[in-house]
Write a structure and sequence with these properties.
The chain is mainly beta. About 5% of the residues lie in helices and about 20% in strands. The strands form four sheets. Strands 1-2-4-6-8-10-12-15-14 form a nine-stranded mixed beta sheet, with helices on one face. A two-stranded parallel sheet has the order 3-5. A two-stranded parallel ribbon has the order 7-9. The chain is globular and about 45 Å long. The relative contact order is 0.16.
Length: about 220
C-alpha cells in the first residue's frame, strides 16, 4: 500500500492532524504538491518499518524530524522545501539509509559526524543550504557513496584528503560556490552512468519488515 500524491494539504502542529493507522503502508510519497507547515511527528507512528518517505518539492517548513518512526528507511527525500535548523545526529542511526536528499532548503549548523557511519548511503545531497563548519575529514569513509552534493553552502577549511581519494577512486570533483574563508570553494561529486543511483527509490517496493507484513 502506498500513500501518494495528496494535494493541497496543510500540515499543522496540532495532535488532530494525523493519518489513519495503516499498519501495512509501504511508502509515503507526497512529493510535488502544495504542502505547507511543519512535518507532524505523528505522521510516521503507524508503521515503524516504513522504508520509503518522499516529501520533496513542497513548501514545508520547520526543522527536520529527529525521529521518523522507522529504522528501515532507504530513501529520505526532503529537497526543495523551506526546512531549517540543523541536520539531526539521529539520522546516522538509520542503518539502511541509501539516499538522503536535502538540497534547496535553509538548513544550517554543521555536518553531523554520525552520517559517516551510514555504510549503505550512496547518495547524499545537501546542495544550496546554509551548512557551515569544516567538511568532515572522515567523509571518505562513505564507501558506498556515488553522488555527493555539498556546493552552495558556507563550508570553510580545507578539502579533506579522504575526499580527494574518493575522486581518484570513483569520480570527479567539481568546484562550486561555497564558504568565503579557507580552502573549500564547494564540492559536488557525482558518478554519472551509475545505474540506479540518485533516484528516489521504488515506491512500490515490498516491505521486508515481518511485523508490518503480519499486521
Amino acid at each position: 500500500m502506498t500513500l501518494a500524491y495528496a494535494s493541497l494539504i496543510t500540515f499543522t502542529s496540532t495532535s488532530n492532524n494525523k493519518l489513519p493507522n495503516f499498519a501495512q503502508l509501504q511508502a509515503i510519497d507526497l512529493s510535488n504538491n502544495l504542502l505547507t507547515g511543519f512535518i507532524p511527528i505523528n505522521l510516521f507512528t503507524f508503521c515503524f518499518c516504513l522504508p520509503f518517505i518522499a516529501l520533496q518539492n513542497n513548501s514545508l517548513s520547520g526543522s527536520i524530524l529527529s525521529s521518523w518512526g522507522t529504522q528501515n528507511l532507504r530513501p529520505l527525500t526532503l529537497d526543495h522545501n523551506s526546512l531549517y535548523g540543523s541536520i539531526p545526529n539521529s539520522l546516522g542511526k538509520l542503518d539502511n539509509l541509501e539516499e538522503l536528499s536535502l538540497n534547496h532548503n535553509k538548513i544550517n549548523g554543521i555536518l553531523p559526524k554520525e552520517l559517516v557511519g551510514l555504510k549503505h548511503l550512496s547518495s547524499l545531497k545537501l546542495k544550496k543550504n546554509q551548512i557551515t563548519g569544516d567538511i568532515l575529514p572522515t567523509i571518505g569513509n562513505l564507501s558506498s557513496i556515488r553522488i555527493l552534493h555539498l556546493s552552495e553552502n558556507t563550508f570553510t577549511g580545507e578539502t579533506p584528503a579522504s575526499l580527494i581519494l574518493l575522486k581518484r577512486e570513483s569520480g570527479s570533483i567539481s568546484k562550486a560556490r561555497n564558504g568565503k574563508s579557507g580552502g573549500v570553494k564547494g564540492i559536488e561529486k557525482g558518478i554519472a552512468a551509475a545505474a540506479g543511483v540518485g533516484g528516489s527509490g521504488d515506491a512500490g517496493a515490498k516491505s521486508e519488515c515481518a511485523e508490518c507484513a503480519a499486521a
